[in-house]
What does this fold into?
Amino acid sequence: MHIVVGTKNPAKIAAVSAVFENATVEGKQTDSHVSAQPFSDLETMQGAINRAIQCADAKSGIIGIGLEGGVMQLDDKLYLCNWGALAVSDAEIYTAGGDRIVLPDEVAKQLKPGVELGDVMERLAHKNDVRKKEGAIGIFTNERVSRKDMFSHIVSLLYGQLEFHRKQKAQH
Ligand SMILES: O=P(O)(O)OP(=O)(O)OP(=O)(O)OC[C@H]1O[C@@H](n2cnc3c(O)ncnc32)[C@H](O)[C@@H]1O
Ligand SMILES: [Mg+2]
It folds into this structure.
């Protein structure tokens, strides 16, 4: 199996390698075609789909995966949200949503168009490259759940759906 992940972010690539253990996994720069900091479930999911399709498009037989982080409003709070998409072609796409946790008000109020959560997190945690390591989710969960763990779960949800679909097809 040949998997292409639409990113150069090592946390996302490691999340895919952890699930597709015996596959070739490579990271490729893609354009999410949504804002750098998506602000809804829909926009975050669309970013993941756009990345996955660009990866699958490259060559037939390739499985494309897109993983996208964003934030979404629920009631009067802002939550982290995460989405993934797996594309076999632009006609066969699986999607899955991941963990959500509430963002502290002091972080939420700094997020406006043009400001990325990753940058706010670096200032707050006095650390570099938070987005490539534990992520915001790692910091706010005392590192019980890292960004890689969280995206791995999404990748399992995606792969499982593909397997289910292939089994169904083989039976008919
Ligand atoms: O190179 P790419 O693949 O774009 O990697 P990225 O780290 O920018 O990842 P996203 O575009 O998917 O993330 C959107 C924003 O959310 C930030 N972010 C950081 N940690 C996050 C987390 O745990 N969950 C969701 N978003 C997070 C991230 O830094 C970006 O500002
Ligand atoms: Mg990004």
